[in-house]
Amino acid sequence: LVLVCAPPSPGACAATYYEAMEKMGIPKREILVSRVEKARDAQAEAKTEFTDALSRFLELTRVEPGEIETVYRQLAGELEDCEARATEVRDRIQAIEDVSEALFDEWRDEAASITDSADRRESERLLRETRARSVTLLRTMRTAADRMDPILTKFRDKVLVLKANLNAQAVAGLSGTATALEADVSRLVADMERAIQEAESFLAGLQ
Fold first, then answer.
1. What is the DSSP letter of 6?
2. Could you read off the pLDDT of 137-177 as tens digits, one per residue?
3. What is d(CA 33, CA 39) in angstroms, rounded to the nearest whole number?
């Protein structure tokens, strides 16, 4: 059952997954920690992947005519890797949101059932603070993830142009795109680093 309903899955299947994990002694908080760690690592890997792809792109603007096809194939491979990494990052972010909602719903219900008013208020305060940190984390991660889209579009366009025109003229047209990509990747790296730091801060707050 756990394998069939493995995350990230919406609706009833996700609820069944969390219930099964609880029975195995793995609470939602632990699942949340694991998913934040995986999303953090995926963003770090994406940062490296996009930086490597930019290096390959810049390399292509300086190759000799006889080397164009070889470097093009390498660039096409880098594009595939970047697209796969971008999909993974978005999936990881969605998985965090899914378990966060389930955890906070459970936490709210449990806090409401606490009979001691002081303990109840403290639990509700911690819930508000953790939820706020979760919102900040998801917003920061999504901002970084959104930076990937224009970069992927530029990469994809140029790979398609090169595929059709493996010649010096096509390569000459890459220089302007290369400059724009350097700026885009620089901003992406900065945003990814902020997202990674936010994940570290969020994890520390759950300890």
1. P
2. 999 999 999 999 999 998 888 888 777 776 666 666 666 67
3. 10
Q: Token match 């096409």: residue?
A: 76
- 191, 121 Cβ separation under 8 angstroms: no
Q: Are 188 and 43 in contact (CB under 8 A)?
A: no
Q: At what angle do helices 28-60 and 68-112 cross, to 10 degrees?
A: 160
Q: CB neighbours of 159 closer than 8 A, spacing ≥ 6?
A: 72, 75, 76, 79
Q: What angle do CA 121, 93, 83 make, to 5 degrees?
A: 170
**Residues 12-19: what's their mean pLDDT?**
82
How many Å apart are CA 91 and CA 12, to the nearest integer? Answer: 18
Give residue-wise pLDDT tens across range 74-124.
888 989 999 999 999 999 999 999 999 999 999 999 999 999 999 999 999
H helix intervals, the chain:
11-23, 28-60, 68-112, 117-164, 168-172, 175-206
Q: What is the pLDDT of residue 9?
A: 47
